[in-house]
Amino acid sequence: MKKLFAALLVTSLLTGCGIGDTNTTYDRAQIGRQGTTATGRIISMTQIEVAGQSEGGTLVGAGLGGVAGGIAGSTVGKGKGSDLMAIAGGAVGALLGGALGGAAQQSATQDTAYEFLVQKGSSNNVISIVQTNELGLKPGDNVVLVTIDGTTRIRAKF
């Protein structure tokens, strides 16, 4: 039972790790890169749901869940590798743990963000930017748009 608890604890901790993308979080590769700026005014914003990560990261959750499930399932046969019950329990535990770990990873990476419609400068050009709202932005705010490596973020009010 202690092995089961330890395996599940490790899985739950590791599948929930990681900082999600926000408008104030930059990729390490973007540090020191020159960007372009523009000014604009937020004309509307709509809350949206960001789907959980289902590529790459889910493999971490599924993999860790599978390991935890395999360890937990093998305890059915008292951990004896030659015991058919331990092998079957380990296999079933790995499958169930993998499925649960993948689902946990996807749930942990689900988030809420906003789609901002921004009128650039004094033109009628309106762009859409999806990001989080740590800065407390709202319609009517005059903002600075920063574009680095093709990614545009609303970075400041002025």
Textual characterization of the structure:
The protein contains three helices and five strands; from the N terminus they run αβααββββ. It is an alpha+beta fold. A five-stranded antiparallel beta sheet has the order 3-2-1-4-5, with no helix packed on it. Helix 1 packs antiparallel against helix 2 and helix 2 runs antiparallel to helix 3. The radius of gyration is 23 Å and the shape is elongated. About 8% of the residues have low confidence.
Can you summarize this structure?
It contains three helices and five strands; from the N terminus they run H-E-H-H-E-E-E-E. With 158 residues, it is of the alpha+beta class.
Broad shape: elongated
Mean of pLDDT: 74
Strand content: 25-35%
Give the neighbour order of strands across the main sheet: 3-2-1-4-5
Order of helices and strands: HEHHEEEE
Helix count equals: 3
Which regions contain 5 or more consecutive residues with pLDDT less than 50? 7-19
Number of strands: 5
Report the oligomer: single chain
Query: Share of helix among residues?
Result: 25-40%
- From the N-terminal CA to the C-terminal CA, the straight-line distance is 58 Å
The value of Rg in angstroms is 23 Å
Main sheet summary: 5 strands, antiparallel
SSE class: alpha+beta
